[in-house]
């Protein structure tokens, strides 16, 4: 029943060869490829179908982890991990979320990772004012795994991350409303009214 | 864009023109609901970045609240297997 996960992104940017190349080199590709990619990215996270898939995967994951603990923090972590998994390794923020999870289990590795991340970036972007620079830094810290990115790459990650977060909010809101609605009452009746409304 | 050079895996070190910055900032502006309708020459780059950070923090907070709510709801449902099956079947139309 659960093995119906469609191939959401059959775009070239998921194949290994592309992943190995840096994102910046996409400028050298033909224009048609760019616009195709851009359309894929614009639709991403915004379709009903993706939201449904995310919701169902999230519920499955929550059910599985329910046996251990259902604290708010765990729910949030689970929600983030399912979101990152759905990104299918195409973005830095999603990889960072999954890596952080792995690292948390090996504390030594986590300390090493933080040390690596804290190294100051060599920056030649002196044309931006210090104010803008500062805000860029803050933004880089908010998006997982994006502390040392250049402005264009950071922007790309940010736009994908924001779209994903928005979907996360929509999905979790729907799930919460549904659970809250069908909680105290017999599921059958409540469902009928929910579906019809 | 032709001024970009491929260097190491670290993405620092590429020179970015002012025009590029303006272009990217306006693109970012379109993602932020609060700033979407405004003309890009009326909103400074710093403001766009600030609002972006605020928006992301806002979304994080919303997810926090929803996680809290969800955890309470999940804890209170006894027959989760029934409900989960119902939810799944509904979601997979």
Automatic annotation (TrEMBL), chain A:
Residue intervals of the BHLH domain: 116-165
Top-rank taxon, per record: Eukaryota
Keywords associated with the record: Nucleus, Transcription, Transcription regulation
Coiled-coil stretches noted in the UniProt entry, renumbered to this chain: none
Biased segments, Basic residues type: 35-46
Subcellular location(s) of the protein: Nucleus
InterPro entries tied to this protein: bHLH_AtIBH1-like (IPR044549), bHLH_dom (IPR011598), HLH_DNA-bd_sf (IPR036638), IBH1-like (IPR044660)
Predominant subcellular localization, coarse grouping: nucleus
Region span, Disordered: 1-46
Protein name: BHLH domain-containing protein
TrEMBL record, chain B:
CDD domains (UniProt xref): bHLH_AtPRE_like
Pfam family, one: bHLH_ILI
Keywords associated with the record: Growth regulation, Nucleus, Transcription, Transcription regulation
Cited PROSITE patterns: BHLH
Localisation per UniProt entry: Nucleus
Main location: nucleus
Protein name: BHLH domain-containing protein
